[in-house]
Amino acid sequence: MPQEIERQYKEILRQYVMRQTEQNLYAGQNFSRQLIQKNIAPEEVISIHKAALEEMFPELPMNVWHSFDLLIEMMIRYGLAHAEHQSLLEQQEEIKVEMDLAANVQRTLLKTTVPEVAGLEIGLVSVPARKMNGDYIYFLSDDLKNAGVAVADVIGKGIPAALCMSMIKYGMDSLQDATSDPKKVLDIINRIVEKSVDDDMFISMFYGRYNVEQSVFTYASAGHEPALFYDAQKGEFSELHAKGLLLGVVPNVTYAQHEVKMEYGDFIVMMTDGVTECRTDEGFIEQEIIASLIHSLRDESAQTIVDTVYKELEKMQNFELRDDFTLVIFKKTH
Amino acid sequence: MGYRSSVEILTEWDIVAARQLGRNEAKEVGFGTVDQARITTAISELARNIYLYAGKGKIEIERISEGGSFGIIIIASDEGPGIPDVRKVMEDGFSTSGGLGAGMPGVKRLMDDFKIETVLGEGTVIKATKWIR
């Protein structure tokens, strides 16, 4: 093969030395593409050039031949840098494939089933900014009487955040009781997180439980975004604030718990900061814009509302998601 | 064991002496210009590492032959601190990102065979072989 390359190069060089046309230069450039594909190092190319020249013009002065030796010496490191780049590109490709697999594992591992509870519609959208999601949703329900939802957000995104999520999942799995009080749920999860994570890893979490018989939504929050409550009769929104420290800071925290009575058409919007901190190049998208967007969709199904809000905000942000985006709606239908 | 010659590495100038020895040996064994330059670059890299990280050591060049093939082995040895994480220094992008040059992966690429033995606190021996194609 090298001899064939030498022969072809000599021919291209001969043509060009004879006639300095663009066509001959183009032939040379196409040939270099082949050389790159065949992993011919730059120092090798110069050596091929030198050999071709020696055959064509053997009478050239010694100085010229010496100068090529210097050039070959200098090109060795370019060759090494090129080979290193190639290998790093391959590694990057491997990492990408691994990330895709990991994201799949995460999806399977953290899968949760939206409960079906009489008189309640649940809408959910959760989209990661990168491959792995740092937001987490977990549903709990029992005997169709209670529907609980945990909305958690690890500060930060990507792989470290995603790894943290499994801890929340197994903590929630251990509860298996949808009647548990939200403040109790947060207390248990907080103890698990506090024991298991570094001091620089923080998780915010909102836990809400809807009771069918009383039509009451009970909630508590560990430093999470307040949920929005839409009062259909008044036609207005209010924030559901609840005091509580982020998960994992200290072992013993007493979380405040509140409740709100839901009437027909009322709904509760739970979200992560990927929603509230949506921004365009001009700055944050105002909370009122999001609220009025949801308001205009109030008569739609819970799933249609979350899907439409996501699509609209994605469009406003030029399809660039800066943070993981999660939106859950509990809507009372009768 | 074939013919062996060596250069002590104590100062930066000894790197040049080691290169010169390697180039002469490579030329005499029959390597072409490009391979001579590759062998010399590998020696440069190994000698520089001795100079920078071990303080002193030596570069030996051994001529070898097997079944009609000829080649050389570069043996770089020092009694320096040793390498704590060999896998890391063999990683692409580890030494180059710090601007340290081609590094160990570079030496491995330039040569046909590369072996490294290192003991913390005792030193490092690297053997890199190249055959005439």
UniProtKB/TrEMBL annotation, chain A:
Signal peptide: none annotated. One of its GO terms (molecular function) is phosphatase activity. SUPFAM superfamilies: KaiA/RbsU domain, PP2C-like. Keywords: Hydrolase. It comes from the Bacteria. Residues 121-334 form the PPM-type phosphatase domain. InterPro entries: Bact_Sigma-Reg, KaiA/RbsU_helical_domain_sf, PPM-type-like_dom_sf, PPM-type_phosphatase-like_dom, PSer_Pase_RsbU_N. PANTHER family: PHOSPHOSERINE PHOSPHATASE RSBU, STAGE II SPORULATION PROTEIN E-RELATED. This is PP2C family protein-serine/threonine phosphatase. The lineage of its organism: Bacteria, Bacillati, Bacillota, Bacilli, Bacillales.
TrEMBL record, chain B:
SUPFAM superfamilies: ATPase domain of HSP90 chaperone/DNA topoisomerase II/histidine kinase (SSF55874). InterPro entries: HATPase_C_sf, HATPase_dom. Gene3D superfamilies: Histidine kinase-like ATPase, C-terminal domain. Residues 34-133 form the Histidine kinase/HSP90-like ATPase domain. It comes from the Bacteria. Transmembrane segments: none annotated. This is Anti-sigma regulatory factor. The lineage of its organism: Bacteria, Bacillati, Bacillota, Bacilli, Bacillales.
